[in-house]
Amino acid sequence: MQRRITTRIILGIDAGTTSVKTVAFTLDGEIVGAARAGVPVDRGPNGEAEVDMERVWEATASTVKDVVDQLTACGGEVAAIGVTGQGDGLWLVDDEGRPVRPAALWLDGRTAARLADWDADGRSAAVARTTGSPLFPGAMPILVAELAAAGAIPDPASTATGVHQLNCKDWLRYRLTGVMVTDPSESSRTYLDTRSVAYEGELFARLGHDAVRRWLPDVADPGAVAGGLTEHAAAVLGLAVGTPVAVGLVDAAAAGVGIGAVADGTGYAILGTTGFVGVNHPSRADVRMEQSIVLATGRGSQVIESLAPMTGTPNLDWVRECLGRGHQDWSEIERAAAAVPPGSGGLLYLPYGSPSGERAPFSDSAASAAWLGMSITTTSAELLRSVYEGLAYALTECLDALRLDGSLAICGGGSDSDLFCRILADVSGRRIVRQDAPEVGARGAATLAGVAAGVFDDLDAGVTGLAPTVSHFLPRPEHHALYAQTYEAFIDTRDALRPRWAPLRALRALTPVPARREEA
After folding, report:
1. Cα-Cα-Cα-Cα dihedral of 58, 449, 294, 110, to 10°?
2. Is 477 helix (H, G, I), strand (E, B) or coil?
3. Are 420 and 411 in contact (CB under 8 A)?
4. What's the pTM value of the predicted model, to 2 decimals?
5. How many other β-carbons are positioned within 10 Å of the β-carbon of residue 69?
6. 242 vs 225: CA distance, rounded Å
7. How far apart are CA 399 and CA 357, in angstroms?
8. What pLDDT, in 10s, does the model give residues 457-483?
9. Which residues form the domain of 145?
10. What one-character DSSP code corresponds to residue 249?
11. Based on the domain organization, do 171 and 283 belong to the same domain?
12. 2 domain residue, yes or no
């Protein structure tokens, strides 16, 4: 009887804002299985953005089961599971692990008025002093205050117990293992002092959130095993009981691992639902900007200093639909945009389309999108290309602010576009290095899982073992010279319009937006 050859596999789960992906990696980084499931986001008239937590788990379970079925053909045996996911927001469960209410997401904008009050009375500054990061509408502390005032969650100033905060990946890991735990990167966006990597008691008192300390899970090493699959989860997923599940990192930090940017001084960028530019520093003392977001990595005192602009791929989805091109494949869209010369005929697009405004490299909850320089001769293709260019301008501004020079590793759904990578190289003047294989976040989660389970000796070995090949996009001098002028015009025009953003935002209240559901 012929013995069946078994291939060891690591699963990486990446739970984004509108979809969950599970990817199976061999120990040399080859993808041998993948599945995706959409998760609808419910939008409210006052900027609310929420998701059903059970739907997120169901989407996760369905993708894992799909991948497990795919592995049957190659004799794959899952050695470990890694999880990452969207950060921030408010994901509350009770003592039985049941969701208290739908999760409020990072892009929730209902707290804008309260945030202005906190900015004025010093509470925002208190959060920034502790965490190292500016407060924004979708962060946990301000969402706690907003939802408590509405009676939607328990009073954070009380002594009541029975409520637990589990960020997206922590919620999914709890469903897999029954263990409530988090990691330094995730807790950096709550009440964590990113210098001591411990929750800060004075901040709870300053915000009147005395009870919230008991809502927060313990902080563990991202490269450690959080627990093994429970009997129930194993039965649902078709995997072995006790399969180790790693603690992991929030998606932006996990992407750094997946792209191989883990050493001090290395940087990387993400273009997904939002943008992200990050650089690793030995400690928080090396952080350069007040507006940057600071994430502790769990690798000693190391932190990621990052700028996370809200200017992401939803701008592309929006323009595609508004121009009546929703039926067209993205390859067709990009051919039309690529046929337009650099500069889009003098058209500038300000990509501040998020309902919650902008948070990097400046903070303005009233930030708004706009096209400028249009005329009746402006074409549909020019409108398309200008959005790609606007995203590149916004990302380049963050690169310049963090003083990230040289080659830039990039990932995220937007980086799948050759057109965007070429434009970013031309605008920024930097060599753009993109992994040829997709799913960098899931790769980072899988790398940490391999380290946690002892498949790899350490993080460097895991990064090397799972690394795919890469593609390079070089800046073209003649295009960079042109874009230097349009980039300057972008910054100047944007800054000139900023004083009018708040009054323009106020006009939205005159025509309220109805509640709606966004599908993946």
Report:
1. 0
2. helix
3. no
4. 0.87
5. 12
6. 11
7. 20
8. 999 999 999 999 999 999 999 999 999
9. 7-246
10. -
11. no
12. no
Give me 141's structure tokens: 């502390």
Tell me which residue has tokens 């690793």: 280
Q: Is residue 511 part of a domain?
A: no
Q: Work out the burial of residue 161: count CB atoms within 10 Å of its CB; fewer than 13 is exposed, 13-18 middle, 19 or more buried.
A: exposed
Give the separation between CA 218 and CA 347, rounded to whole angstroms: 50
Residue type, 294: V
- Neighbour count for residue 464 (Cβ, 10 Å): 12
Asked if 265 contacts 406 with a C-beta cutoff of 8 angstroms, the reply is no
In a domain, 517, yes or no: no
Looking at residue 278, what DSSP letter applies? E
CATH number (domain holding residue 206)? 3.30.420.40
For strands 41-43 and 49-51, give the pairing.
antiparallel
Question: Tokens 């001591």 map to which residue?
Answer: 196
Number of domains composing the chain: 2
The per-residue pLDDT for range 301-322, each reduced to its tens digit, is 999 999 989 899 999 999 999 9
HSE, side-chain direction, 13 A CA sphere, residue 463:
14
Tokens of 417: 């576009």
305 shares a domain with 182: no
Closest by CA to 315, choosing from 353, 364, 276, 350, is 353
